[in-house]
Specification:
Elements (H helix, E strand, L loop, with lengths): L2 E4 L4 H8 L9 E4 L2 E4 L8 E4 L2 E3 L6 E3 L2 E3 L2 H7 L3 E5 L4 E5 L1 H4 L29 H5 L9 H14 L6 E2 L4 E5 L2 E10 L2 E8 L5 E6 L1
Parallel strand pairs: 1-4
Antiparallel strand pairs: 2-3, 4-5, 6-7, 8-9, 10-12, 11-12, 12-13, 13-14
């Protein structure tokens, strides 16, 4: 019995070799709509990965001096996902690390000042305690202007189509009174804290 040994550090080379086996499943090769008969040699070839023999559903064979193995047998033994996309006529191979990566988790680039998510209960300076009781009755920045500032920030960061989530409320954050404005787009949320007197974006809470 011949033994076909694969070491992980040589996986890239063997993937190039065994990739052809994804379309060669027997003594027949299918290419587009053309069927070609070929002669192959079976020698009861065993497959070993890091010294451990694995079971194969499709028996390896030799064709024109090269050994061919079903890619699914090796990929599954290595914990790699492999599937055939009938729509694009493509063999797709995904490593575990690539499968865990999701584009939806990417956060768009932020350019506004102080974009790091702050503690929700920041300490208030002693001198600000009195100001906390003095809620502005006539703020320089209106609710409508605060919403415009938030939308301008979103557009500047290439975010369009976001809608306001809930109302606009006034709260005391980081020693000053701010408007809290929330916008959402899909699963992404932006909560703006905008100074009611200057219109400055104190920070943006991104979830």
């Amino acid at each position: 019995m011949e033994r076909f040994v694969i070491m992980k550090k040589k996986l890239t080379l063997y993937i190039a070799i065994i990739g052809i086996a994804a379309i060669i499943l027997s003594a027949t090769v299918l290419a587009a709509s053309v069927t070609t008969a070929i002669q192959v040699t079976y020698r009861n070839i065993a497959v070993s990965i890091n010294g451990k023999t694995i079971a194969t559903e499709q028996e390896p064979f030799i064709f024109e001096g090269r050994t061919y193995i079903a890619i699914r047998d090796v990929a599954e033994a290595l914990g790699v996902e492999v599937r055939f996309n009938e729509i694009t006529n493509t063999v797709e191979i995904n490593t575990p690390q690539a499968a865990q990566t999701s584009p939806s988790q990417t956060v768009p680039p932020q350019t506004a000042p102080s974009q790091t998510k702050p503690p929700r209960t920041p300490s208030v300076p002693a001198g600000a305690a009195a100001n906390r009781r003095q809620r502005p009755t006539d703020p320089s920045i209106t609710r409508e202007r605060a919403m415009e500032i938030a939308v301008d920030w979103l557009r500047a960061n290439g975010i369009t189509g976001a809608r306001r989530d809930g109302g606009v409320s006034m709260d005391f954050e980081r020693g000053r009174w701010v408007w809290e404005v929330e916008y959402e787009l899909g699963r992404q949320e932006w909560e703006f804290y905008i100074c009611v007197m200057t219109g400055e974006i104190v920070y943006v809470d991104i979830d």
